[in-house]
Amino acid sequence: MKSLEDLKKMREAALNKVQMREGGKDYRVVVGMATCGIAAGARPVLNRLVEETAANDYNCVVTQTGCIGMCIYEPIVEVFGKEGEHTTYIHVDPDKAARILEEHIKNGHVIEEYTVDAAVNGGK
Amino acid sequence: MFRTNVLVCAGTGCSASNSDEIFKNLNEELKKLGLEEEVKVIKTGCFGLCQKGPIVAVHPDNVYYAHVKPEDAERIVAEHLYKGRVVTDLQLSDEDLKTHEKIVDIEKIKFYEKQQRIALRNCGKINPEDIEEYIAVDGYQAIGKVLTEMTPEQVIDEVKKSGLRGRGGAGFPTGLKWQFEKASPGTEKYVICNADEGDPGAFMDRSVLEGDPHAIIEGMEIMAYAVGAKKGYIYIRAEYPIAVHRLRIAIDQAKAFGLLGDNILGTGFNFDLELRLGAGAFVCGEETALIASIEGKRGMPTPKPPFPAVSGVWGKPTSINNVETLANVAQIIWKGADWFTSIGTEKSKGTKVFALGGKIKNTGLVEVPMGTTLREVIYEIGGGCPNNKAFKAVQTGGPSGGCLTEKMLDTPIDFDNLVAAGSMMGSGGMIVLDEDNCMVDVARFYMEFIVDESCGKCSPCRIGTKRLLEMLTKITKGEGTLEMLDEMEKLCHEIKDTALCGLGQTAPNPVLSTLANFRDEYIAHVVDKKCPAHVCKDLLTYSIDPNACKKCSMCARGCPVNAITGVPGKEPYVIDTDKCIKCGNCMTACRFGAVVRK
Q: Which residue in chain A is spatially nearest to B263 when comparing CA positions?
């Protein structure tokens, strides 16, 4: 390292190594990763969420959970907000996952058509 | 890109409980399921909650597992990391809150709630063997700021303004120490990190070195720049192999990154750092003895003055700071003296790390703001004495400190208050004693330690402490007299006044403080020939209550010297006190409480 500038650049580059241990994000994005979820393709969804979050520095942590009992709708991605508000997206694929981050986490808009409400009640 | 980080504690405590194997097994299990590209397992420093170790933390899920065994790795990987189901039976639970709820936020559990971590800030958070992780958490930013924006005088002023005092025991103002060296004439100057942690029960320096070695390197660089030194030594005991190993890695990495050695960060500042391993003599924590040891001489103290700031290692000006002190330095520079002075009491700023040990539920490392009371540390963080035993005293300051009683528990902890209460901060060992501890025996234990560790150079320490130990031993054997107590007290003061170095000058403290606070226990030993805590074997007698005895013969079968006779089912058993070696086996063996100890 030749200068303070180099050190600052290195710090930026190294940040993603430790960032997920910090917490303090506004949203928690949770992927169902039980046998049903994995069989339906939750793993690529999870990986895409992790990659996109890191690349765009979205204000969320991505984590996983077990079966929530709606195996028929897997892969399921749930988004929890700061106030405990909670949206359940179903039949998510990697591209839908990227859109959820873009629309919901970044812009704050729930994508109604992907939600479980839309599937069960035909939307609000 | 990893989706999950698994942090395995690799401090000495958890390593001793197989955390290495847990690390290995986790990696193997991840590989079996093809998750090695998704989940990263990292060895990290001490979480402080040693009682619950080995600890494994999973992020970003914020799940903490306690008492993990190597064979648990399979379940953690298959259930949690593969299927996302937290292994609840392994999860850390807050027993003091009497709940078994999942710990979602570790900061909220009682053990951490009152803590504020500055010296330990990265322990349990980063991988100490990866300099990039240290850089990611603002590492080496402070030395960058110092080298590009500040003069040495400004650095010293900032540290003086912060009110930082030496964490090794005496509490000397750090900035002042640096100023003295800076003012000493000469161009060849040195800095030393004193990592010769010797107090029985203290392990905070080891944990900082194991968990955050780069913080010490950065602190030493700042100190070197301030005083005008180009060379530094870390004097560390060879009994700390993990800390030595991580320091070596850290030094090599810092050199490779251009953050140590010549022309640091392109500013023209040169600083070279060397490790010196000590053989573990307690006296080598004393600065003049430490310097002698670095120079290859026998570790013995020399009279002061001259102080090391004038004539230290190789006869050149030298500043010596303890590990925990140095761990605060980079933070003070980076966040400013005003931030640091906002924490703590009027005369003691910042935080202090304590190693909680002895009769306490949560053995471990805690860092609290100065001014926290002993009661908060022992009861709220430490959880009090286990098995519903009554608290008797807390020993602070190691062999140089004293015992504080129930009455003093509401004392806010800082350097001056502890001295006023008859003990001292020392390096921060805190050993809790309960009703089963005999205070005479405790004093004897510390004196035995001192007699072993006295270097023998000056007679007050060499001969005086030996005489104290002899008298204490006599008292524990029931051969003491009341005059002996006065004689001990007098000798203690003579040693304090005349010993050459800090070791001897403070060596009588455990005796003086137990004499002052627990004289009744001494008198019980001397006059009644009884040990109230039932510790001193020579003063105990075991007998069997014939009315309670069920004649089952269990006691006799457990006796290693055949001192117990009786007839099974017919005659109650009797202990022959001449043969009895007071091992206590019969008492453990008896299921009816018929064995009586007096």
A: A2
